[in-house]
Write a structure and sequence with these properties.
single chain, alpha+beta, 2 helices, 31% helix
């Protein structure tokens, strides 16, 4: 019996070692990350890097696979400016890899699903961060400013002054409106919630430096 147990034990130990060295986190696994550098539609550019730190350990079958402090790295993939009448400021990021505390690096395919930033900022189904943008209050401000300019011009110079005053009022108001740049901003320290869009293979063969 012993001569059969020895090979069986060896096979079990080998299988255990293989399993420990070849982990795969399934699609949909969540990562909670704290952003280390600010991202904003007013300052960030396409291709800019970003990084964050994992805030909560990720476990698989009771074993910690991604410990707290693991680095998440990625880049900005979309930036939409806000100086236009319609639309919302938009910024999108693409997480590319994770770096464990021991230096091992793995390719990461994940999507942003939520952030801790509020005040009109949200994340759409495509993982893009949308800022508040301009609203009816801004449009009312433009209308009031333009009308006020027309009224003052009309009182000062009659019909012709009415037209000139309207043009001056519109120009000044729109200039003021454009100066009130609204942005989609993720300050450093923002909490990001990511979800794996593909399984995260964490084997020796997929590790990089």
């Amino acid at each position: 019996m012993k001569r059969f147990l020895a090979p069986l034990l060896a096979v079990l130990l080998a299988a255990t070692a293989w399993a420990e060295g070849n982990l795969s986190l399934p699609t949909g696994t969540s990562l909670k990350v704290k952003l280390e550098n600010q991202l904003s539609t007013t300052t960030s550019k396409l291709g800019d890097p970003f990084s964050g730190r994992v805030m909560e350990a990720v476990q698989l079958d009771g074993k910690t696979v991604i410990p707290v402090g693991t680095t998440v790295q990625g880049r900005v993939t979309k930036v939409t400016d806000t100086r236009r009448l319609y639309g919302k400021p938009t910024i999108a990021i693409f997480p590319e890899n994770i770096v464990l505390p021991d230096g091992k690096q793995y390719t990461l395919n994940a999507a942003l699903v939520d952030t801790s930033v509020r005040n009109g900022t949200d994340v759409n189904e495509e993982g893009q961060v949308k800022g508040k943008g301009y609203d009816g209050k801004d449009l009312t401000e433009i209308g009031v400013g333009t009308g006020g300019g027309m009224l003052i011009g009309g009182l000062a110079g009659g019909g012709k002054g009415l037209l000139i005053g309207g043009a001056i009022g519109a120009t000044a108001t729109v200039a003021h409106w454009l100066s009130k740049t609204k942005s989609a901003t993720l300050p450093a320290g923002t909490e990001l919630w990511l979800e794996l869009s593909r399984p995260l293979e964490m084997s020796e063969a997929t590790a990089g430096q």
